[in-house]
Amino acid sequence: MVRPDDAAGEASHRLWQRQPTHLPASRRRAVRVPRRDWRPRTGSTGRQAGDPGQAQFRPATSPSRPAVTLPAELLRAYTDTAYRVYDGNHVETLQIGKASDFMVARMRQLEVTTACLITAWNPYSEPAGETDNRARNAVLETEIRNAGFFLLPGKGENTRGEWPGEESILAFGPTRAQATRWCRQYWQHAVVWVQSDGIPLLLLQDGTLLEGEG
């Protein structure tokens, strides 16, 4: 999820500029996050790998900053996103706050009561290159797959066409604690959380669930 921009870009710049750390939490806004925790590992020669197949990334082992309340513009960007899920020949579109019969049936079939749609693209809504984004997502997918969860590929696409789509992963069966850990570990403001009722919600880093704006 990249940060929303207005036509002139000025409002976005003001929203996403660095904020003084001494401000109380209630007055802080989203801030730029340095990407130094995502370091390409060098080979035996000490030279950084140059092609996408060689670049390797490791996620942060702890939160890089405290969770913050989502600004209205960013919350709107999440709720304006169509979350595509690809299951064979079927493409299901999930939207925040709108029940999905597909998710209800798929979770019942898999005998689970939860699902989490997450991406590692564009950490904290800062646009990153496609090579870096794919490398991050590959690390995330490997971690979730190794944990034994059934996965389906997904993609988040802004319905207004304001930013490019982000490849995502739908994991069936994680706990809420696992989902929030992934959210922090892969530097995301929120993930999509679905329970047995099939209604996608936004799950923030601190475990708060949001149905959308308001």
Features:
214 residues; alpha+beta; 8-stranded antiparallel β-sheet; 5 helices; 8 strands; 21% strand
Question: Can you characterise this structure?
Answer:
- This protein is α+β, with helices and mostly antiparallel strands and 214 residues long.
- It has a domain at 80-210.
- 24% of the residues lie in helices and 21% in strands.
- The protein contains 5 helices and 8 strands.
- It has an 8-stranded antiparallel sheet with strand order 2-1-4-5-3-6-7-8, with helices on both faces.
- The radius of gyration is 17 Å and the shape is globular.
Structural class: alpha+beta
Task: Specify the number of helices.
Answer: 5
Largest sheet data? 8 strands, antiparallel
Shape: globular
Got a strand count? 8
Largest beta sheet: strand ordering: 2-1-4-5-3-6-7-8
- Level of helix content? 10-25%
Q: Specify Rg, calculated over alpha carbons.
A: 17 Å
Averaging pLDDT over every residue, what do you get? 77
Uncertain residue ranges: 5-56, 60-67
- End-to-end CA span: 20 Å
**What proportion of the residues form beta strands (DSSP E)?**
15-25%
Order of helices and strands: HHEEHEHEEHEEE
